[in-house]
Fold this protein.
Amino acid sequence: MTLALVGLGVSTSQTVAIGPAYRLERGPMPTAPRLIAPDEVMAEIARLEEALAASQGALRAVRRQISRASGSPLSLAEFIDSHLLILEDAALVEPARDLIRDQLFSAEWALRQHRDDLARVFDEMDDPYLRSRRDDIDQVIHHILGFLTAGDQTSQEPESEISGCVIVAHDISPADTLLLRHRGAVALVTEHGGPLSHTAILARSLNIPAVMGVRHATRYLRPGETLVVDGEAGTVLAGADYHILNHYRQRLVALSARRNRLRRLVHEPCQTRDGQPVELLANLELPDDAQLARANGAAGVGLYRTEFLYMNRTGQPNEEEHLAAYRQAIRGLGGIPITIRTLDLGADKQVDGALGANCPPACNPALGLRAIRLCLKDPELFRPQLRAILRASAEGPVRLMLPMLTNLGEVEATLSLLAQARRDLTQEGRPFDPEMPIGGMIEIPAAALCADAFARRLDFLSIGTNDLIQYTLATDRIDDTVNYLYDPLHPAVLRLLRMIIAAGRRQHKPVAMCGEMAGDRRFTRLLLGLGLRQFSMQPGSLLEIKELILEADAARLAIQVEDLYNRLDTEPAEELLAALNHPA
Ligand code: PEP
Ligand code: MG
C-alpha cells in the first residue's frame, strides 16, 4: 500500500527525487525536566558553554568550506552567517544560563525552556516571514543540543550511507543542508520549516528537491524504504507501486531532458525570435566563478564584486593582491570581457579589521559613507584598486564600474584619479588599455532621475536593482521586518527602470542590469519589452533566462509593455505582469 504524506513543496527547478529513506537523528529536544544539585551548577554551565563553542566551531568550519567551494553562491555563506550571528548573540544562552543557576535545570532542559519561550514570541507574530525565523532559532538550539548529548551527528554520518538517499529529519539546518548535499543526498523531507526558511532557500539554490512541514515524517517513514519526493506538489510517497514509481521515473527523465535542452542552448546565439541580439552576462563573486560563467555560455562578466578582497583580513589588500585576483578571473574567462566593480563596502557589506575603521558605525549605514563615497574620501584605499584594474586591462578586455553613484562630481573625481594613475603607470612603463571603458551603477533614485547626464559622461550604465529598490522604497534590503515592502513591481521602481533604459538609448550608451531582477524569469519579458539588452546574473540562471529570450518577440513585447505602463496606476502590477507573461 502506498503511504502519501503531504507537506510544503519548496522546490522550483529540480523538483523530483527517488531514493531510500535515511533518518537523520538530530539532538532530540528533551521532553522531561532534569534537575541538578546546587554543587553541579558551575559544571553544568561549563557543559552548556562547551556545547555552544563546539556548535560555533562546526558552523565556522562549514563556512570556511563554502568560501573555498568553487561556484558556491555567496548567499550560502549568508545563511551560515545568520546562524552564527544567532549563536553569538548573548541573548540566546544567557537566559539558559540563568535557568541552570536559579532553577537548577540541566543544560538540556534549560535550553528547551528558553527555546519554548522564544517560540511563543515568534508564534504571536502576524508576518509569516517573521514567524518562519522561529525555525532558525529552533535549528540553532538543536545544533547545540546535538553537542550536549552526542556530539555533532551530521558530520559523523558516513558518506557512503547518505549518497543517493532521501534525508528524513525533524529539521535540517542550512549548514547541514550543505554538508548533506556534498555527501550525495538526493532530497530532503523535514517535519519543520517552510518555503521562506533559510533551509528552503538554500535547497533551491543547491537544486535539491525538498518537502518541509511533513508532520510525523520521522515516525511514519522507515529507514531504507523507497521514497518518492515531489518538491513541487509537496508530497512524499512511501511504498509506491510500480505505476506510481514509473510515473515519477518518467518525470525524472523529463527533468533531465530539460536540463540537457537548456545545456544545448549554451552555444546558441542569444537573440529574440525577431532577431534582437541580447547579451547574457555573469555576476562573479570570486575569481573561481569564472569557469561557471563560461560553462553556462556567458558573453562576459557584467559584475565582478571585489569586496571579497577586503574580507576576513585585518589590513587592506595591496595593488599586487588586487591584480592577482583580477588576473585569475581574466584567465579563467578565456577572452570574454569582465566588468570589475570598484569597492562597494559599507552598509550590508561590512568588513573586519583596520578597514572597519574607515566605515564608522552610522545611524543610517545604507545612507552613509560607503562604496564610491568611501573610496573618494580615502584615495589611499582607492588608488591601489584603480591602478590594479588599469594594469589588468593590459591582459584582457576589462571595464571598470563605479558603484552607488549619487552625482556627477563623483564621476569627475574618479576620472581625475584615473587620469593620474594612467600618467603614473606610463612613467613606470607599465602597460594598460588607454581605452578601458568606465561605467557606473545606477542604484540611487537621484542617479536614475539624472541617468541622461551619467550616460553622457560614462561609457556604460548598469542598473543595480537590489539597491535601487531599497532606496526608492526606503526599505532596508536586509531587514526582515520591512521585507514585505521590498517590491520590484512597485510602479515607482518600474518607472525608474524605464527612465534609465530610455536615457541609455537617447545617449547611445549601453545599459545593463546586474541586480537580482535580471536573473529572475518573472521579469525577463518585461525587461525585454523595456528595451534592456544586457542581463547580468548568477551563472546558474543564464540558460533559464536565455530560453525565455529565444522564445520572445521583442517588438511585440515593446508594445505590450507600453500598454502595461499605461495601466500601472489603475491595475495591480502583479496582474499586469501575469498577463504579459501568460497571454490568453
Ligand atoms: C545591486 O545593488 O543591484 C547590485 C548589483 O549590487 P550589490 O547587490 O552588490 O549591492
Ligand atoms: Mg548595489
The pocket of phosphoenolpyruvate (ligand 1) is lined by residues 303, 305, 344, 443, 464-467, 514-515 (CB under 6 Å). Residues 41-68 form the longest helix (28 residues). Confidence is low (pLDDT under 50) at residues 69-74. The two ends are 42 Å apart (CA to CA).
